[in-house]
Design brief:
homodimer; about 400 residues; alpha/beta; 7-stranded mixed β-sheet; 3-stranded antiparallel β-sheet; 12 strands; about 40% helix; globular
């Protein structure tokens, strides 16, 4: 099991803090946004006496509520198409175990969320990366690139839109191209939609659930973590209209008994979160994105595409090695006793030496801190001995 | 992935209820005992604004609290020996993935908790059963039986004491015999201690953590589910003084990010549960056990050993097939419009046709209902066409 690349820098961040430096955490997807009051009140207002197991597939009331949420988004599903999971993490691992055997292959456009590797590893599944590029903002690679790597072992294509780590939002045309691909080769299409609610500039989110004819192919992976800034609730789900997949996934869900009971009560309340909450959060993230993208592109020899969603950007920096640079920022650099922690992009690629001059920046801190962090980064780039 | 054997009967129980029968649920380990007020109050009194990830190994305050709990039980550990997990289920799966590779073997006295099979399956680990017998109350099988099945692929022995499904409590002598075995063959010793607090008749619980010289071998698997009747909290942990195991387990914990935040706050409160709570629960379970064991042994041709712990008994019944019998009780039988749901013991054995005349009974309902359930069972045994 490889170490989580996002965690590798943690000891250096701890040391920097012990040395009295202020560290701006742009390295992880833990937003500062407040969790909706309705969810927290649901926790505070529990009135049971026995904290019991729930049904392995999730409680009926919660799955019913979820179905209304998804149908508002045009998914046309019922509660019986949902299995509630312990976070998006478990949704991914159950999906892998259900749909792929040891040695089977899943194609994933890279860069991709590093923990996909961890879950694939656990089930001896092979992740086959397809390169996407910063030069076109990490758009879907040409379908011909997918075709080239399809083998008799290929079982699925795995996408994430809006994307972590790139923020890229797949267009309707790109989704249609993927549909044709998976139908042609009879593959599953796994879609991680953790960032569904975060699309900017009036762009429309397109889910494979919006496309006809994919009923047997699609497995949606979802989580409350980002949508409601409730990462610590560890509540997600799998959605599929493929009944065989659903029933097989249930067996894995039964082995671990159930997801959390209190969280599912909070999840019911979450579906009733007023629109104003999302409007406010949306405006905040959109504003932060503009700030970060603009600040980065003003720095000498830095390039940052303007992504359509999520709360991440990938930036190309004039550096020799992003692992070294991010560590140097924590260990050896400070500006007015502050520094910035970022995620080296190398951790999001499996192709060797890809991402060496890229970092992922999560805009999960407030505007004033973001401004300070951008100044720090610019000063850091000026001072870095490995600048190229 | 095989279906969870405990769930196979659920559709028949549902049908029985729809037909208006009262079903006594003696089939699952979901107690009716109330969760300690302190835990529930910790949930009601949350005062954070962002429901955030915690450290992957668990929060410092919670692990510190846990260490005080275990040290009160003589474990001599620190917070750094603990990794907090999403229930005992995840503790088992992470332990398997950390200590065994695909094809490796773990020896488990059978009958054993059926989901061990599920988790082994997920990692292509081979469970090698060693038969224990109802005739001696499911005591530890002779060490020579373990020796016979040890191969170059054997990596671990996995025990559960007090045992699910048998209730058997391993003695100091049995634990010492296991110690000698694992040291001789350089094996891990995994111990599922979910029922640690439930030992009756003044018998003493012995953990492998109480034995010197096993520091590198032992991994303890624990959960709050049974101890505090908090199954739906999904909070457990791994304890090991083997630093390599701890660090490798942490990588799996990091891949899934963290256990629940609210649960860990409740877990801190749980450690402060007053002794009176346990005394009351202990007296209740002990009383129920006496009632069930006595009622069963009074039935014609029924035998039930008197187990030292947990809240299960295994009973030998005069029946042809426990799967058929348990299903028949739900589908075709009622006494005063009531019936009983039990777990066929076949699900706890991997050896074919073992457990055909045994059932597991969980005494997780109140005394009056238990009495009614025992009457129903006796009447059912009289009427069952497959009686032998």
């Amino acid at each position: 099991m490889p170490e989580s690349p996002i965690r590798k820098l943690s000891p250096f961040a701890e040391a920097a803090k012990r040395a009295g430096k202020k560290v701006y955490h742009l390295n992880i997807g833990q937003p500062d946004i407040e969790t909706p009051e309705g969810m927290l009140n649901a926790v505070k207002n529990i009135d049971f006496k026995v904290w019991a197991y729930t049904e392995s597939e999730g409680t009926h009331p919660y799955r019913n509520k979820l179905a209304t949420y998804y149908n508002k988004h045009g998914y046309n599903i019922s509660a019986d198409d949902i299995i509630v999971t312990t976070g998006g993490s478990e949704a991914i691992s159950i999906t892998f175990m259900t749909c792929l055997d040891a040695g089977d292959e899943v194609i994933v456009p890279e860069p991709f969320y590093a923990n996909y590797n961890g879950f694939a590893n656990q089930s001896d599944i092979v992740v086959v990366p397809i390169m996407s590029h910063i030069s076109n903002g990490f758009a879907l690679p040409p379908i011909s690139d997918f075709e080239k790597v399809i083998t008799g072992k290929t079982r699925a294509v795995f996408i994430c839109s809006p994307n972590n780590p790139t923020g890229y939002l797949y267009s309707k045309e790109e989704m249609e191209a993927l549909k044709a691909l998976v139908l042609k080769h009879d593959l599953f299409l796994f879609a991680d939609e953790a960032y569904r609610e975060f699309c900017y500039d009036g762009q429309t989110f397109v889910s494979p659930m919006h496309l006809d004819g994919l009923e047997e192919n699609v497995v949606i992976i979802d989580t409350l973590s980002k949508r409601y800034s409730a990462c610590g609730a560890r509540l997600g789900c799998i959605i599929t209209r493929n009944k065989e997949v659903w029933h097989n996934a249930l067996k894995f869900a039964q082995a671990r008994l159930s997801a959390g009971m209190v969280e599912q009560l909070a999840g019911e309340a979450a579906v009733d979160t007023p629109n104003e909450y999302f409007e406010k959060v949306h405006a905040e993230y959109s504003h932060r994105r503009d700030l970060v993208v603009s600040a980065l592109n003003k720095m000498t020899d830095v390039y940052c595409p303007n992504p359509g969603g999520a709360f991440y950007v990938m930036a190309r920096l004039p550096i020799d090695n992003s692992d070294k640079f991010c560590r140097w920022m924590l260990e050896d650099f400070s500006y007015q006793n502050q520094t910035v922690m970022m995620a080296p992009a190398t951790g999001f690629y499996t192709t060797p030496s890809a991402g060496l001059n890229e970092v992922r920046i999560a805009y999960v801190i407030n505007e004033n801190e973001l401004r300070q962090a951008m100044i720090c980064l610019e000063e850091g780039l000026r001072a870095y001995p490995g600048r190229v």
